[in-house]
Design brief:
single chain; alpha/beta; Enolase-like, domain 1; TIM Barrel; 2 domains; 3-stranded antiparallel beta sheet; 12 helices; 12 strands; globular; binds magnesium ion
């Protein structure tokens, strides 16, 4: 299963709906309208091709492609594509001084995902079955519809679509300059959706401890399921203090880059729910370790974004935990994700079961 070819591409995809969070906005403070997908196609001598990708919203896109093309490809040619564990370590050690997080890990995720895709195709198994086949589907919550620039009325129109598909509930952004605005919005959404609907909110690292404490206590009164990223992601003691002081679960992890960073949060009991992002942690190989860490610690896992690939991990090795419906890179793939009655099902084709056509690459390539 020798690797014969490693190709890199960079796609610029329009977001299905512009996004704006407490920490992410466009150049002039408005919504962000595009997402960048750094992707690879890895082909073996026997002709099996695997695809994988990383993503960024706010910069570093060319660096992701460059890491794949100039740094990882020469390390991969001639290697056995089935040795994902050994190759993950080889790539990670080689680039560690310039990228144990960020663009290098996004590129590493693309490579790692492609190697798992090849492994699944070689075994003629959908990846979630190869990983363990823990379950056939995962509950979905709607997440692309609660951006800061949207009015409550606009948000509710999107949430209606999600609830009509029987999704478990919705998550939306908080993080206005005045947190009282956020609480008023949460109250309106709660009133409109009723007491039984699952609602979570996400502050994207916006606040300091006193503000987050006040917001958290207000959210507790409104039956919010989790309070996501209240503080800056490096502030482990702050999150630990907040987790102790609040009853509402603290969700955290989308900006963490490795098992070591997750373990630091777990050891300090600084998060109640862990949210690894398959691309930011360098792919499936590392995400599996993070899932195990969370399971041992008794921390529920709610993966962040990238549902098309993450569904395989979620159904392969996780007995529970939701999938976040966020169709940010869906335009790249030839087929839509499968959601029936509020549950997402992994594709049944071998490997990831994802295809990015040559026409799509030509259309979005930069
Ligand atoms: Mg988030």
């Amino acid at each position: 299963m020798k690797i014969a070819k490693v190709e890199a591409e960079l796609l610029k995809l329009p977001l299905p709906r512009p996004m704006q969070s407490g920490s992410s906005s466009g150049k002039k403070g408005g919504p962000v309208t595009d997402i960048y997908m750094g992707m690879t196609r890895i082909t073996t001598e026997s002709g099996i091709m695997g695809i994988g990708y990383g993503w960024t919203l706010l910069g570093g896109a060319r660096a992701i492609k460059s890491f794949i093309e100039h740094d990882y490809a020469p390390l991969l040619i001639g290697e056995n594509a089935l040795d994902n564990e050994r190759l993950w370590t080889k790539l990670n050690r080689r680039l560690q001084t310039v990228g144990r997080a960020g663009a290098a890990m996004e590129a590493q995720a693309a490579v790692d995902m492609a190697l798992w895709d090849i492994k699944g195709k070689a075994a003629n198994l959908p990846l979630y079955k190869l990983l363990g086949g823990t379950r056939e589907c995962a509950p979905v919550y709607g997440s692309d519809g609660g951006w800061l620039y949207m009015s409550v009325k606009e948000m509710l129109a999107v949430f209606d679509e999600y609830m009509n598909q029987n999704m478990m509930g919705v998550k939306f952004k908080i993080g206005h300059a005045d947190p009282k605005v956020d609480i008023a919005r949460v109250r309106q959404v709660r009133k409109a959706l009723g007491d039984d609907v699952w609602i979570a909110v996400d502050a994207n690292q916006k606040w300091d401890y006193p503000t987050a404490l006040w917001v958290g206590r207000e959210l507790e009164q409104l039956g919010v399921a989790w309070f996501e990223e209240p503080l800056w992601c490096d502030d482990i003691p702050g999150h630990a203090r907040l987790a102790r002081d609040l009853d509402i679960p603290i969700a955290m992890g989308e900006t963490l880059a490795s098992r070591y960073e997750f373990n630091a949060y777990i050891r300090e009991d600084a998060a109640d729910i862990l949210q690894p992002d398959i691309c930011r942690v360098g792919g499936i190989t590392e995400m599996l370790k993070i899932v195990t860490l969370g399971q041992v610690a008794g921390k529920p896992i709610a993966p962040h974004h990238m549902m098309e690939s993450t569904i395989h991990v979620a159904c392969g090795v996780m007995e529970s935990g939701p999938i976040e419906y966020m169709p940010w890179v869906s335009a790249a793939f030839s087929e839509d994700v499968i959601i029936r009655d509020g549950l997402m099902y992994p594709p049944q084709k071998p490997g990831l079961g994802l295809e990015i056509s040559d026409d799509t690459i030509a259309k979005y390539r930069i």
